[in-house]
What we know:
Mean pLDDT: 89
Number of helices: 1
Strand content: 35-45%
CATH class: Mainly Beta
Largest sheet: 5 strands, antiparallel
CATH architecture: 6 Propeller
Number of strands: 25
Distance between the termini: 30 Å
CATH superfamily: TolB, C-terminal domain
Structural class: mainly beta
Shape: globular
Helix content: under 10%
Strand order of the largest sheet: 1-22-21-20-19
Number of domains: 1
Amino acid sequence: xxxxxxxxxxxxxxxxxxxxxxxxxxxxxxxxxxxxxxxxxxxxxxxxxxxxxxxxxxxxxxxxxxxxxxxxxxxxxxxxxxxxxxxxxxxxxxxxxxxxxxxxxxxxxxxxxxxxxxxxxxxxxxxxxxxxxxxxxxxxxxxxxxxxxxxxxxxxxxxxxxxxxxxxxxxxxxxxxxxxxxxxxxxxxxxxxxxxxxxxxxxxxxxxxxxxxxxxxxxxxxxxxxxxxxxxxxxxxxxxxxxxxxxxxxxxxxxxxxxxxxxxxxxxxxxxxxxxxxxxxxxxxxxxxxxxxxxxxxxxxxxxxxxxxxxxxxxxxxxxxxxxxxxxxxx
Length: 331
């Protein structure tokens, strides 16, 4: 019953937000707007409770300037935002105001598909290649430091040293590394910061407790509990730090996820084009963003939310800046 109630709340919130956004767009646009080739990115972007000021053109003003699909985004909480693009240079760094800082990653860096990029606790950059079956750690300037998985070698759900299309990385309170290995396998794999295998979460396909289907996201809370985005089952599966099933949270999610220090949980969904903000398993806000929010980042210092869209014809990054004077989910 709770699961169905939560799903209805999610759908009601998303539909309400889309209705309000659509009404705003119609009210603000002249009749001739239907003939315009590009709708301004900010015209339909909003948050359900007005906690965010939203802009759909972070980093560049013209989507063509990206040159390729904006697959992921990361924020280090120290003034830097990283955008991963599926063409070289793959990794592009900006200030939080969108000014370019540096970029690296030549055409040979990814032999499969650039999928996601993340800042490690030590300032390193972690990147997943979902076709090459690898997760790599780089220095801030691009020096390769560590590789998890085996290039071009697919592992099964029991493998301790090989993945099958890994897609996302998260970090635990002790610095351990958690890899969402879910395009072909159905699990999350934990490693020490040095790359030593620790344990597997899940590993069985299905709909039962602890089972998953298409894992596309992972987050870890302050107690070490693991939140695995079970996309095809439209839920998040929660495990304790030892890998034991705890509960399911009914929420659609096919994108990224993030757990804030205060327990606020963020999850994006490419199908709804929105980010749900949750506290104590309840939705406290919904942010309508541009395109398909495949990548998700939350600045751990400011609470600003960034998403990257994988609409191939209109790449881009949306920034939802937390309003400092408004009630906030992270306060």
